[in-house]
Design a protein that fits this description.
The chain is 27% helix and 27% strand. With 192 residues, it is α+β, with helices and mostly antiparallel strands. The mean pLDDT is 90. The chain has a single domain (12-182), classed as minor pseudopilin epsh domain (minor pseudopilin epsh fold, 3-Layer(bab) Sandwich), CATH 3.55.40. Strands 3-2-1-5 form a four-stranded antiparallel β-sheet, with helices on one face.
Protein backbone atom coordinates (compact mmCIF):
# COMPACT_ATOMS: atom_id res chain seq x y z
CA UNK A 1 0.00 0.00 0.00
CA UNK A 2 1.28 3.38 -1.05
CA UNK A 3 1.45 6.25 1.44
CA UNK A 4 0.18 9.63 0.27
CA UNK A 5 1.92 12.69 1.69
CA UNK A 6 -0.33 14.83 3.83
CA UNK A 7 -0.92 18.41 2.81
CA UNK A 8 -1.55 21.26 5.21
CA UNK A 9 0.11 23.77 7.47
CA UNK A 10 2.22 23.11 10.47
CA UNK A 11 1.42 24.88 13.70
CA UNK A 12 4.49 27.09 13.29
CA UNK A 13 3.49 28.13 9.76
CA UNK A 14 0.00 28.97 10.96
CA UNK A 15 1.35 31.05 13.89
CA UNK A 16 3.72 32.98 11.59
CA UNK A 17 0.88 33.68 9.16
CA UNK A 18 -1.37 34.95 11.97
CA UNK A 19 1.46 37.07 13.35
CA UNK A 20 2.08 38.74 9.98
CA UNK A 21 -1.66 39.25 9.43
CA UNK A 22 -2.02 40.91 12.85
CA UNK A 23 0.85 43.30 12.09
CA UNK A 24 -0.71 44.26 8.74
CA UNK A 25 -4.14 44.69 10.32
CA UNK A 26 -2.67 46.77 13.15
CA UNK A 27 -1.11 49.10 10.61
CA UNK A 28 -4.26 49.35 8.48
CA UNK A 29 -6.85 50.07 11.21
CA UNK A 30 -5.52 53.53 12.22
CA UNK A 31 -5.37 54.56 8.56
CA UNK A 32 -8.93 53.36 8.04
CA UNK A 33 -10.17 55.24 11.13
CA UNK A 34 -8.36 58.42 10.01
CA UNK A 35 -9.82 58.11 6.51
CA UNK A 36 -13.30 57.56 7.96
CA UNK A 37 -13.03 60.70 10.16
CA UNK A 38 -11.73 62.77 7.25
CA UNK A 39 -14.56 61.58 4.97
CA UNK A 40 -17.17 62.36 7.63
CA UNK A 41 -15.76 65.88 8.05
CA UNK A 42 -15.90 66.44 4.29
CA UNK A 43 -19.46 65.08 4.09
CA UNK A 44 -20.65 67.27 6.98
CA UNK A 45 -19.00 70.31 5.40
CA UNK A 46 -20.62 69.62 2.04
CA UNK A 47 -24.01 69.08 3.69
CA UNK A 48 -23.82 72.47 5.38
CA UNK A 49 -22.65 74.23 2.20
CA UNK A 50 -25.55 72.59 0.35
CA UNK A 51 -27.90 73.99 3.00
CA UNK A 52 -26.40 77.46 2.60
CA UNK A 53 -26.84 77.29 -1.17
CA UNK A 54 -30.46 76.17 -0.71
CA UNK A 55 -31.19 79.08 1.64
CA UNK A 56 -29.59 81.55 -0.75
CA UNK A 57 -31.48 80.27 -3.81
CA UNK A 58 -34.79 80.10 -1.91
CA UNK A 59 -34.35 83.69 -0.71
CA UNK A 60 -33.93 84.83 -4.31
CA UNK A 61 -36.81 82.66 -5.57
CA UNK A 62 -39.17 83.86 -2.84
CA UNK A 63 -37.84 87.44 -2.85
CA UNK A 64 -37.88 87.18 0.94
CA UNK A 65 -35.59 86.42 3.87
CA UNK A 66 -34.63 82.78 4.40
CA UNK A 67 -32.82 81.78 7.59
CA UNK A 68 -30.72 78.83 8.76
CA UNK A 69 -30.42 78.13 12.48
CA UNK A 70 -29.29 75.35 14.79
CA UNK A 71 -32.04 73.17 16.26
CA UNK A 72 -32.50 70.41 18.77
CA UNK A 73 -36.03 69.39 17.83
CA UNK A 74 -36.10 70.03 14.07
CA UNK A 75 -38.76 72.73 14.45
CA UNK A 76 -37.45 75.67 16.49
CA UNK A 77 -34.17 77.57 16.61
CA UNK A 78 -31.87 76.85 19.55
CA UNK A 79 -28.75 78.88 20.24
CA UNK A 80 -25.59 76.75 20.41
CA UNK A 81 -27.37 73.77 18.81
CA UNK A 82 -25.71 73.70 15.39
CA UNK A 83 -24.15 70.26 16.01
CA UNK A 84 -27.52 68.69 16.86
CA UNK A 85 -28.99 69.75 13.52
CA UNK A 86 -30.20 72.78 11.62
CA UNK A 87 -33.31 74.01 9.87
CA UNK A 88 -33.97 76.29 6.92
CA UNK A 89 -37.15 78.35 6.96
CA UNK A 90 -38.84 81.28 5.26
CA UNK A 91 -38.30 84.04 7.83
CA UNK A 92 -41.32 86.21 7.01
CA UNK A 93 -40.61 88.78 9.73
CA UNK A 94 -36.79 88.67 9.23
CA UNK A 95 -36.07 88.24 12.94
CA UNK A 96 -33.72 85.24 12.62
CA UNK A 97 -35.99 83.03 14.71
CA UNK A 98 -38.65 80.60 13.49
CA UNK A 99 -42.09 81.72 14.53
CA UNK A 100 -45.42 79.92 14.26
CA UNK A 101 -46.56 79.79 10.65
CA UNK A 102 -43.15 80.37 9.05
CA UNK A 103 -42.67 77.64 6.42
CA UNK A 104 -40.01 75.04 7.17
CA UNK A 105 -37.96 74.36 4.01
CA UNK A 106 -35.43 71.78 5.21
CA UNK A 107 -34.49 69.91 8.36
CA UNK A 108 -31.01 68.45 8.67
CA UNK A 109 -30.15 65.89 11.31
CA UNK A 110 -27.29 66.45 13.71
CA UNK A 111 -23.70 65.48 13.15
CA UNK A 112 -22.46 62.16 14.48
CA UNK A 113 -21.08 61.59 17.94
CA UNK A 114 -17.82 63.49 18.43
CA UNK A 115 -18.43 65.86 15.48
CA UNK A 116 -19.23 69.55 15.96
CA UNK A 117 -20.38 72.46 13.83
CA UNK A 118 -19.61 75.79 15.49
CA UNK A 119 -19.96 79.36 14.22
CA UNK A 120 -17.98 82.45 15.10
CA UNK A 121 -19.81 85.30 16.84
CA UNK A 122 -21.36 86.60 13.60
CA UNK A 123 -23.56 83.52 13.27
CA UNK A 124 -23.99 82.45 16.88
CA UNK A 125 -27.77 82.10 16.48
CA UNK A 126 -28.55 82.11 12.75
CA UNK A 127 -27.57 82.92 9.16
CA UNK A 128 -30.08 84.86 7.06
CA UNK A 129 -30.20 85.55 3.33
CA UNK A 130 -32.16 88.53 2.05
CA UNK A 131 -34.34 88.80 -1.03
CA UNK A 132 -31.29 89.66 -3.15
CA UNK A 133 -29.50 86.45 -2.07
CA UNK A 134 -26.90 88.13 0.10
CA UNK A 135 -26.05 87.01 3.62
CA UNK A 136 -26.77 89.28 6.56
CA UNK A 137 -23.12 89.07 7.66
CA UNK A 138 -19.81 87.38 6.93
CA UNK A 139 -18.20 84.80 9.17
CA UNK A 140 -16.88 81.30 9.68
CA UNK A 141 -18.11 77.88 10.77
CA UNK A 142 -15.77 75.09 11.90
CA UNK A 143 -16.51 71.39 11.45
CA UNK A 144 -14.39 69.35 13.87
CA UNK A 145 -13.97 65.87 15.27
CA UNK A 146 -13.26 65.46 18.98
CA UNK A 147 -12.29 69.13 19.29
CA UNK A 148 -9.21 68.71 17.08
CA UNK A 149 -8.35 71.82 15.08
CA UNK A 150 -5.78 69.97 12.99
CA UNK A 151 -7.76 68.25 10.24
CA UNK A 152 -10.87 70.37 10.88
CA UNK A 153 -12.81 72.04 8.08
CA UNK A 154 -13.65 75.75 7.89
CA UNK A 155 -16.65 77.13 6.01
CA UNK A 156 -16.19 80.79 5.18
CA UNK A 157 -19.40 82.69 4.48
CA UNK A 158 -19.06 85.80 2.39
CA UNK A 159 -22.05 87.92 1.48
CA UNK A 160 -22.75 85.84 -1.64
CA UNK A 161 -20.99 82.47 -1.68
CA UNK A 162 -19.61 80.06 0.90
CA UNK A 163 -16.19 78.54 0.46
CA UNK A 164 -14.03 76.04 2.30
CA UNK A 165 -10.93 77.32 4.08
CA UNK A 166 -7.80 75.36 3.19
CA UNK A 167 -4.53 74.88 5.03
CA UNK A 168 -2.27 77.27 3.14
CA UNK A 169 0.48 77.68 5.75
CA UNK A 170 4.04 76.79 4.95
CA UNK A 171 4.84 74.32 6.41
CA UNK A 172 1.38 72.81 6.45
CA UNK A 173 -0.05 72.31 9.95
CA UNK A 174 -3.40 70.75 9.00
CA UNK A 175 -5.37 73.70 10.42
CA UNK A 176 -7.65 75.50 7.95
CA UNK A 177 -6.83 79.11 7.22
CA UNK A 178 -9.22 82.02 7.05
CA UNK A 179 -8.48 85.67 6.49
CA UNK A 180 -5.90 86.59 9.12
CA UNK A 181 -4.49 83.12 9.84
CA UNK A 182 -5.54 79.75 11.24
CA UNK A 183 -8.94 79.22 12.78
CA UNK A 184 -8.55 79.68 16.53
CA UNK A 185 -10.47 76.61 17.60
CA UNK A 186 -13.47 74.36 17.18
CA UNK A 187 -15.83 76.30 19.45
CA UNK A 188 -14.92 79.79 18.17
CA UNK A 189 -13.37 79.54 14.73
CA UNK A 190 -12.43 83.21 14.33
CA UNK A 191 -8.84 83.74 13.23
CA UNK A 192 -5.85 83.95 15.55
Amino acid sequence: MEKHPQHGFTLIELMITLFIASILLGAAIPSFVEMSVRNRLVTSTNDFISTINLARSESIRRAATVTICGTEDGAACDADAWSTGWIVFADTNSDGDRDVGEPLLRVHEGLGNGYTLSPDDAFATSVSYGADGSADDTGVFAVCHDGEVAGARAIILTRLRPRVGRDTDSPADGIPNIEGGNISGCTDPSSV
